[in-house]
Amino acid sequence: STLRVQCMALVAVFGLLLLKAAVSAGTRPNILFLMADQMRADLVGASGNELAKTPSLDRLAREGVLFRNAFSSTPTCTPARAAILTGQKPWNHGMLGYGTVAKQYSYEMPRAMAGAGYYTKSIGKDHFGWDKELKQGIPHGYLDTKLYDGLTEEIDNYDQWFSKVDPGGNPMATGLTWNDYRGRPYALPEYLHPTAWVGRTAVEFLNNYNRTEPFMLKVSFHRPHSPYDPPKRVMDLFNVSDMPEPYDGIVLQLCTMHTLYVLSFQEATGTNGLP
């Protein structure tokens, strides 16, 4: 969680300012907060990358607001996520390096939204902690969570779903670890991929939402964080020879996998025929 996470945080702040104006005018719009983990800002078509195939993200940038000069207050995962959760910098929320997010803060954005009458839900990656007894994520004000944190110490909602649809199957069958620098095609049917599960779960929520109060839905994709395991059909859309020259030996594969994964993330939003 580095530059792109803080860009998303700025978008969230901008959205909350719009929300304040809307509430003052007597309306409360639904809010959809999309984010991805470790997606480079320069690997989107709207940023001028000619190799990226991101039409949906490009349209959001074209028809909305694109921040070209935004920076994270920390380049580390959980402190950046705590900043989004609390609206505070690391030296205020207390996490200067990678560690465990506190079980509760004095101010938390989803709790404030719930207090303002919103139905708050989080789908995908929170990395806010896991309650092993209740077998659910620590809510931090979200009234409901459907999580895929990508952590072996958690049996999260995706893991529970996977064990039901593929009993005895191995969600890590591709053979890559959570912080692996290598990349290879996803070894299982695409329907089982966590990126597809997050996108599909979010679409189902939006299609079936029938509560009277407005919603604030956060959809957080774990990829393009490692493991770099896009479906083969996506990898086949790119040629390694088209990728820019690396700065160092290992960077070539990392840049290649990140570029590939931008497309996987875009498709998981429900476009291009994902189930």
Descriptive notes:
With 275 residues, this protein is α/β, with parallel strands linked by helices. It has nine helices and six strands; from the N terminus they run αβααααββββααβαα. It has a four-stranded parallel beta sheet with strand order 1-6-2-5, with helices on both faces. A two-stranded antiparallel sheet has the order 3-4. The protein is globular, with a radius of gyration of 18 Å. The model is unreliable at 1-12 and 271-275 (pLDDT under 50).
Keywords:
alpha/beta, single chain, 275 residues, two-stranded antiparallel ribbon
State the gist of this model.
The chain is α/β, with parallel strands linked by helices and 275 residues long. The protein has helices at 3-24, 55-63, 77-86, 90-93, 109-115, 157-165, 194-208, 232-235, 251-267, and strands at 31-36, 119-124, 130-131, 136-137, 144-147, 215-221.
- Gap between N and C termini, in Å? 28 Å
Report Rg: 18 Å
Helix content, binned percent = 25-40%
Class from helix and strand fractions? alpha/beta
Please describe the biggest sheet, giving its number of strands, its sense, and whether it closes into a barrel: 4 strands, parallel
Helix/strand order: HEHHHHEEEEHHEHH
Number of strands: 6
User: What do the pLDDT scores average to?
Assistant: 82
Low-confidence stretches: 1-12, 271-275
Strands ordered across the widest β-sheet: 1-6-2-5
Blueprint (SSEs and pairs):
Blueprint: H1 3-24, E1 31-36, H2 55-63, H3 77-86, H4 90-93, H5 109-115, E2 119-124, E3 130-131, E4 136-137, E5 144-147, H6 157-165, H7 194-208, E6 215-221, H8 232-235, H9 251-267
Parallel strand pairs: 1-6, 2-5, 2-6
Antiparallel strand pairs: 3-4
Helix pairs in contact: 1-3
